[in-house]
Structure formats: structure tokens, C-alpha cells
Amino acid sequence: MITTHIGGASRPSAGALRLVEGRTSEPLTADVSDYVRAMASHCPFLMPSVARGLTGWTLYEIAGDTRAAEAEVFHAGVQAAEWIRPLTTRRHGTLVCENIVLLGGDAPAHRELMAWPHWALKHLYGPVGLMFGKFWTDEEGTDRQGHRIPPPPFSFLTARSAIRPVDPRFLTDTPDLAQSLSTAVDDGRNVFQGLPYEWKAVKKWASSLLSPQRPVPLPKRSAAPRSS
Fold first, then answer.
1. Euclidean distance between CA atoms 220 and 55, whole angstroms
2. Residue 56 Cα distances to 29, 75, 153, angstroms
3. Strands 55-62, 141-142: parallel, antiparallel or unpaired by DSSP?
4. Is the dihedral of CA 149, 154, 46, 206 positive or negative?
5. Which of 36, 154, 56 is nearest to 98 (CA)?
6. Going by DSSP bridges, is the β-strand pair 130-135/155-161 parallel, antiparallel, or unpaired?
7. Residues 51 and 57: beta-carbon distance below 8 Å
8. Of 84, 201, 203, 213, which has the maximum CB count within 10 A?
9. Taking the CA atoms of the chain, what radius of gyration do you get in angstroms?
10. 154, 164 in Cβ contact below 8 A?
11. Are the C-beta atoms of 118 and 132 separated by less than 8 Å?
12. Rounded CA gap, 148 and 145, in Å?
């Protein structure tokens, strides 16, 4: 069950995401250690964050229809963002990172499920200095130097404190957001000011922005040859 709080109001979930493991720095349900170690060379902030217990993981299983689950992925993202905001002003605040892991289903379903929540979240929280990212199982990619990034063993959304001199470079497709992020200051504002705190309304607002690129279908994998 997801219960998020904005401005003193709470929102219980409809149960489309089942909480498998509450926030922890060392999850038992999914082995994150090998992936974190493999990613360390691509992100200099990761291991210092892990060493200080500032990288958190919350694990959910998809337990309802896609429409309901999409809303709850969004609200799980809000919950992560609101957890991070007061921590970013403390010592080592730039190392704070929260991850929302999705279990059940497959990579194409996860990509579809995360697309609109991710798009809305990064536009809501970019102006107050938070970055959102999305990763799906076995995603293949390279870093800015062209080095291969280890494929994730699971799908997840990540929310973290923005690194202002660097992160706007990742937002070339959204120059207004990049500019906003580069000068962001969290003044404690309610990011939903003037916007109803319901996913249907938020998605309508998000769709009025430049539409996010739809996921490219994953290539079908051929069966591995049997040894003779």
C-alpha cells in the first residue's frame, strides 16, 4: 500500500502495486549489490552514497491493471521525492538517492508503466532541484564517454538530488527544464500548487507538455543454440 503526503493530506493506494519490501539500504528481495558495484565506475557519487546509507530501495510488485498501477508508480515517485527534499540541505545531501523497484511483468510492460510517471515527476520536481531517471530490466546503453553501462537486473525509477553543473546536459530534449534545473532552489514550495493531486489530472497536465518519446519495442531474442 502506498500512502503519500502533500500539504498534510494523505492519499492511500488502490493496491495496484503491492509493497514487497519497505525502504531499506540493503534489500533482501532483490540483489542490488553486484549491480551497484558494476555501476560505481559510471557514477562517482554512488559508492559514497551507499557507504553512508543514503541510497534507498523500495520494492513493489505489480498487482493490478496497468492504468491503476501507473497512478501508483507516480505516487510512489512523489513519496520518494518528498522524502529526499529535506535531506538535500543536510550534510552529504547531494548523495541522497531513492529507488522504486518494479517486480512482476516484463521489461516492455515496465517501460510503458514508467513512461508517463517519469515524465510528470521530472517536470514537477526539476524546478526544486531533483532529478528522476528510469531504467528497465536488461536495458542496454552507454555513458557519455561511450562506455557500455551494465544492464539493470530489474526495472526501477530513481530520484536524487540534481548535480546542477552536470545534469542539465541530460535534458537536451527539454531545454526549458534543463534551464530550470540549472538554477533550481528548493524554497519549500508545494510542487502541486494549482494542480489537483490526482494522477488523472497530473497526466493531463503532463501530456500538455512536449510528449515523452514512446518506448521503442525491445527486439525479440532468439533462443540460445543448444550444445551438441
1. 33
2. 14, 17, 17
3. unpaired
4. positive
5. 56
6. antiparallel
7. no
8. 84
9. 17
10. no
11. yes
12. 9
Q: Which residue has the cell 500500500?
A: 1
State the DSSP code for 15. Answer: S
8 vs 220: CA distance, rounded Å? 47
Contact 36, 46 (CB under 8 A): yes
pLDDT in tens, the chain (228 residues): 455 555 433 454 568 899 999 999 999 999 999 999 999 888 888 999 999 999 999 999 998 787 789 999 999 999 999 999 999 989 998 899 999 999 998 889 999 999 999 999 999 999 998 989 999 999 987 776 777 888 999 999 999 988 766 765 777 777 787 777 777 889 999 999 989 889 999 999 999 886 555 444 444 444 444 433
- Strand order from edge to edge, sheet including 97-103: 17-24, 55-62, 97-103, 155-161, 130-135
pLDDT of 120: 95
Q: Is 167 exposed, middle or buried (0-12, 13-18, 19+ CB in 10 A)?
A: buried
> Of 55, 62, 8, which Cα lies nearest the Cα of 32?
55
Give the β-pairing of 55-62 and 97-103. Answer: parallel
